Amino acid sequence: MIVESGFSTLLYKELLRFWKVSFQTIAAPILTSLLYLLIFSHALEARVQVYPGVAYKAFLVPGLAMMALLQNAFANSSSSLIQSKITGNIIFVLLTPLTPAQTFLAYMFAAVVRGVVVGAGVLAVTAWFVHLPVSNVLWVCIFALLGGGILSAMGIIAGIWADKFDQLAAFQNFIIIPLTFLAGVFYSVQSLPPFWQAASHLNPFFYMVDGFRYGFFGIGDVAPGVSLAVVASCLLGLSALCLKLLQTGYKLRH
Amino acid sequence: MTPAIEVQQVHKRFGAVHALTGVDLRIEPGEFFGLLGPNGAGKTTLISILAGLARADSGTLSVMGHDVGRDYRLARRALGVVPQELVFDPFFTVRETLLIQSGYFGLRDNEAWVDEIIERLDLKDKAHANMRQLSGGMKRRVLVAQALVHKPPVIILDEPTAGVDVELRQGLWRFVRELNQAGHTIVLTTHYLEEAEALCGRIAMLKQGRVVALDTTRNLLRGVSGVRVRVRLSPNRLPNSVLGKLASEDGDSRVLALECFAEIEMVLAELRGGDIEVLELEVLQIDLEDVFVQMMHRH
Lengths: 254, 299
Prior knowledge:
- The complex is a heterodimer.
- By secondary structure, chain A is mainly α.
- Chain A has helices at 7-20, 22-44, 56-87, 91-94, 100-126, 137-161, 165-181, 194-200, 204-217, 224-248.
- Chain A has one domain.
- In chain A, helix 3 (56-87) packs across helix 9 and helix 6 packs antiparallel against helix 9 (204-217).
- The two termini of chain A are 28 Å apart.
- Chain B is elongated, with a radius of gyration of 23 Å.
- In chain B, helix 3 crosses helix 4 (111-120).
- Chain B is 35% helix and 29% strand.
- Chain B has helices at residues 43-51, 72-77, 94-104, 111-120, 136-148, 166-181, 193-199, 217-222, 240-243, 262-273, 288-298, and strands spanning 5-14, 17-27, 32-36, 58-63, 66-67, 79-82, 154-158, 185-189, 202-207, 210-216, 227-234, 246-250, 253-258, 277-284.
- Chain B has two domains: 5-90 and 150-220, P-loop containing nucleotide triphosphate hydrolases (Rossmann fold), CATH 3.40.50.300; 227-298.
- Chain B is an alpha/beta fold.
- Chain B has eleven helices and 14 strands.
- Classes of the chains: A mainly alpha, B alpha/beta.
- The interface between A and B is medium-sized, with 28 and 31 residues.
């Protein structure tokens, strides 16, 4: 039913949109992650031991891949919506018989695809520099997809809410980037003072990164089941909010 | 017969502005219908509500019998809208744009019709050009094509010829006329009143969110009272007794608005009495602009 009625076209269009500018949407974030790896691992490799028997460089790679995945999933849905709103071409979607659920899922899936492609790209490129074990590929995939889903949903919310590019930039700079950087991408939260450890556990991004990293090393700061519960709950909650916004036409249908 | 469009007691507010105040309209299938009014009259608001881009505060609207709120999917399938703004997606070519738009309506394998529209709207040379590379007129054609990809029975054109050159305008009207003859209901808003007069069988005039006139174009033209006369005088002045009848001036010619033909003789007598020679005199045909002006002043 979903595929018959335009969902697949909106998904295809969203995929084509980022693919047409893949140098900017895929290659650039992979290069940025590679630079992070080279700089941080060069500066900290000899000084930091996070998990026993795991080199800092190896510890860093899943975090960087997840960070790139999350940020690009967010960027895809949010930039598509804000651009369409500002240029006015959002009406080409609004005039159609697409349901709120179809619209939501198409934007979300496309954003997840971009996030996963970038995340996989980071893993592929860094494989030249770091040997990374994979303890459980299922956890890797689950957290990649759920994390991408959460950030896609946040991108949809931000894209709908923002009226101007600077509002979207504020959402990204004051919410997405701090939550990502404070999610244990570059460190284990176990190394933090007790207060900041507790604060980190309030950050849902921490569970995405930790669960994803667990898939590689079989070690995490919290049990993967706990991370899964938190991440899945966040995804459900944010998806419900997206659907509500699309159903009511908030800032889309006046 | 199920009306193509039915609007009943529709109200819409934007903050303190009452954009639509109880609009009622019924447009029959196959009509070429004009929706006229000054800026801010509520035309685009009404179209936006019909298309689902805005929501009415109260009242009901349907397209081909489908309620635009309850049965929005069927209503939108029945409606093609050419928006007023020149909007486009800069990521895609003309053909991609049309195939994507077609796909939104669940139409796969629609390439033959898309290619036909491309051909009919003279877009063939630009079919593989990015939308950014098109001129304003070409972008306007693509907007028309996008509204037609799903072969809607009802087509709304919101100021489709604004800023468009004469050749394209004429081509567009030829095409829209053919669509109308093929059974499509056409709803047109335009500031070019001569276009509405030439094309529309029936016209509604909106002012401040309400319908102030709704009739066939012929009846609206008949309903205008008075006569308009253009004169060129020597010396180029009007006696005081005639000054009140001056409707407009254009260079050295003046248009006088008179109540009836008999008044022409009275005006000529006044001019003769004032030693003013009539160099030229032309009785003007009443057009939609006169109807429009009269309606807007009357209400």
